[in-house]
Each structure stands twice: as structure tokens, then as C-alpha cells.
Specification:
The chain has two domains: 10-252 and 398-409, no CATH class; 255-373, Conserved hypothetical protein from pyrococcus furiosus pfu- 392566-001, domain 2, CATH 3.30.1760. It is 32% helix and 23% strand. The chain is of the alpha+beta class. The longest helix is centred in the first third of the chain and has 17 residues, at 63-79. Helix 6 (127-140) crosses helix 9.
């Protein structure tokens, strides 16, 4: 069974919610976070990116960063304020971007189900990032940003949610980036009914985004349990904040690649090597339009690459567009054997558009850019079901869930 349980949510007031809600910590760097939070003492970025209130250039893992996060969270709770609901609730969370909506459910998920595989993953996590998130959560004693789950569409859950969406929302605001965020608090009876539907009809959750948050939550539970002589497994630290959305409503954008050098080759050399495995032709623009194909930007020109080999004969991982690129271009031609550790490659979310790829290459900082066709949600779930791991940076979900809308203290 997949548990998504009601909890005592910690929420900003209606008057402050638009100022509090902030983009996730991992989609902005320190400079961008500081710019977004400038002039807004209520921005949750003071909690999620606390270095913006310390001296420039401070090590992000410095003790003072975590202490600053806890202090900022306490201050926000007092001054915004953030208020804990007395009852246990689930919350509906709807995001609208460019005329498309997706509606999910805020609840708490089980760290034990993450460890057992009921909550399925498709990415490897990095130890340093796990350490950082675990320390952040432990300092705050709160899960302040949700893990983003998906599940296979379910008519019964859809029907109950549709009925509740007819009621007046608790929050409804448009963020500076134009995305509308709407939140409903379900009453306790409906919360229990919806939670039971998930338990009965949804066998597994899939992590769409938030692998490090989920891993950190499991580590938090493991750290807290031995310190409690009366541990039962039902304490709040055994659960973490999650927002679960039906797969049919989600959209994945491409996660594009840019590479700093051609590994000693000239552009002409690189094109010659590409012709060994791909049909190469000039392209008018950089939008990849079909699975199995990708485009690349080299020496001020776009090219289309179509495999000369039969991708239908490849395995579930190998036929991913990002795998085709990695296995047939990045590793053999450009010498990037491990994109997780190589300092010669970077990744650009599809929300930035192909113009960002052109800009990076034309600046001279990068030599070639690759525009990918997005991975599908079905591929993500199939890979997670197989217990397999996607290449890094295979998916970019939009719109991004906001931190600070609902927190879970423990």
C-alpha cells in the first residue's frame, strides 16, 4: 500500500502566502536566490538558501549556514507567521502554467515505505547532497519542501478531488513567474477518506522530483529513532512531506546538455565522428521533435542527429534519448564517461529554451550543446518498476512546486 497521511500542516497566513512561497532550493544558485528574496523578509529562500544572509562566498556546508536556516525558520514562524493546523489534514495543491493545470495532494509519506520500495526511485543520490538535506531538516526539525511524487491515474481519487475543487480554496495567488498556485485544506473526514483511497488503490508512488529530499527524510527517521526510548514507528519523524500528482497531468521538459570542449577535436572532426553512428543534417532550429533524435549546436549552426542503429532493440534504459547521447556521443567521442562527476559537462533545464544553449556556446565557454527530446512519465515509471536507474538529469518537471506553502514539523 502507498500511504499518504493527513498531518498537522504548518502554513503561512492568507495575507503573507504569496511573499512566503518560494521556488525550490535546488533550482536557483545563491546569487539568483538573493535576487529573488531581495526586499522580501518573508521569502522562504531565507530558510532554504540561508547563505544569502551571510557573508558572500561562505562554504554552503559551513555550520553557520545550517544555524542561520534554523534561525530564519523560527523568525518566519513568528513574524509571517506560520501557523500549525490543530487538526490533521490533507491539502489539494493545484498549479496552473500557460493554461495547463495539475492537481495533487499534500500529505506525509512513510520513510519505511521509501526504504522498502513502495516509494520507487529512478535516480542515484549523491552523498554530499544527502548529507546537506539531512542536516538542514534536522536543524529545522521540519520538512519544509515537498518531495514530488506521481502515481498511475485512478478514477476514484480523481472523482473525490474533483468534488473538493468546487469548494472555496484557502490560498490562490499568482507568483512573480506567472504560475498560479491554489491550495485547499480538506476537512478531517474527507482527508481520511482520500488517504484510505490511496492506501487501497495506489500500490506504489514514484519519485518524480526530490530524490535527495526523500533520502534525507529516511536518514532523518533512522537518526531520530534510536534517540527515542519509546519509539513506536508512528512518530512524526517517521514521515515526510510529499505532494502526489496523477501521472496523466504531468509534463516533463527536456534536460539539455552543454559540453565545454570537443576533447581535442575540431568541429569538422566532431561532425565526421558523429556521421559514424548518426545521420547528420542541418537544422533550422534547436527544438527536438521526436524521440530517438536530438539536435546539437556547433560552430554557430544547428544539426539534427538521427541514429543509424535500431533503437527499438535497445533496453529500457539504453533507448532513452539521454542514454543514446551518453552511450554514443558523450562517452566515446567527448570522453565524458561519468556525467555525474565530469566538470566538462553541464545541464540546462528545458524551461530556459534552446536560446540559452546558443547563448552558452556562442559565449565561448562551451563548445557544443545538445537539445534533447523529453523523457516521458511512462518511461520514468517503467524504469522505476524495473528497479533501474536513469542517467543523471534525465527529467525536468514544470511547473516547480513551491517551498513554504505547507511544512511538516516533527
Amino acid at each position: 500500500m502507498a500511504e499518504l497521511l493527513p498531518f498537522h500542516g504548518v502554513l503561512p497566513t492568507v495575507e503573507r502566502v504569496a511573499q512566503v512561497a518560494a521556488v525550490p532550493y535546488d533550482v536557483v544558485n545563491s546569487r539568483e536566490a538573493a535576487e529573488l528574496a531581495a526586499g522580501n523578509p518573508y521569502s522562504f529562500l531565507h530558510v532554504s538558501r540561508p547563505e544569502i544572509d551571510l557573508e558572500p562566498g561562505i562554504d554552503l556546508h559551513d555550520e553557520r549556514v545550517y544555524h542561520q536556516a534554523a534561525a530564519a525558520f523560527r523568525k518566519l514562524c513568528e513574524e509571517a507567521p506560520l501557523v500549525m493546523d490543530q487538526g490533521r489534514h490533507l491539502y489539494l495543491y493545484q498549479l496552473e502554467m500557460n493554461g495547463r493545470t495539475q492537481t495533487g495532494v499534500f500529505g506525509v509519506a512513510s520513510a519505511a515505505e521509501y526504504r522498502s520500495g513502495v516509494i520507487r526511485k529512478h535516480e542515484k543520490t549523491r552523498q554530499d547532497k544527502e548529507d546537506d538535506r539531512t542536516r538542514h531538516v534536522m536543524e529545522l526539525r521540519s520538512h519544509t519542501g515537498p518531495a514530488f511524487f506521481t502515481y498511475r491515474d485512478n478514477a476514484s481519487i480523481d472523482a473525490l478531488i474533483a468534488k473538493e475543487l468546487q469548494k472555496k480554496p484557502l490560498f490562490n495567488f499568482v507568483a512573480p513567474d506567472g504560475i498560479r498556485h491554489t491550495l485547499w485544506r480538506l476537512d478531517e473526514r474527507v482527508s481520511e477518506e482520500l488517504s484510505e483511497l490511496f492506501r487501497r488503490e495506489v500500490p506504489v508512488f514514484y519519485i518524480a522530483d526530490g530524490h535527495h529530499r526523500s533520502a534525507a527524510a529516511a536518514r532523518t527517521a533512522a537518526e531520530c529513532a534510536p534517540k527515542n526510548p519509546d519509539h513506536t514507528g508512528k512518530e512524526e519523524y517517521n514521515y515526510f512531506l510529499a505532494a502526489a500528482f496523477p501521472a496523466g497531468q504531468l509534463a516533463i521538459l527536456p534536460y539539455n546538455r552543454i559540453v565545454k570542449s570537443l576533447n581535442g577535436m575540431t568541429p569538422a572532426d566532431f561532425l565526421m565522428h558523429m556521421n559514424e553512428k548518426f545521420f547528420i543534417s542541418p537544422a533550422k532550429d534547436g527544438e527536438a521533435t521526436r524521440p530517438g533524435e536530438f539536435k546539437f549546436y556547433l560552430a554557430h549552426a544547428w544539426y539534427l542527429a538521427r541514429p543509424k542503429f535500431d533503437i527499438s532493440r535497445l533496453g529500457v534504459i539504453e533507448r532513452l534519448d539521454v542514454s543514446i547521447l551518453q552511450d554514443n556521443v558523450l562517452a566515446p567521442f567527448l570522453g565524458i564517461d561519468d556525467p555525474r562527476t565530469s566538470d566538462r559537462i553541464d545541464f540546462v533545464g528545458g524551461i530556459r529554451g534552446t536560446g540559452e544553449l546558443v547563448k552558452r556556446v556562442d559565449s565561448g565557454e562551451y563548445a557544443v550543446a545538445f537539445s534533447m527530446y523529453p523523457t516521458t512519465v511512462e518511461q520514468l515509471m517503467d524504469i522505476a518498476d524495473a528497479g533501474a536507474i536513469m542517467p543523471p538529469k534525465s527529467t525536468w518537471f514544470e511547473p516547480k512546486l513551491r517551498d513554504g506553502l505547507v511544512c511538516h514539523n516533527f
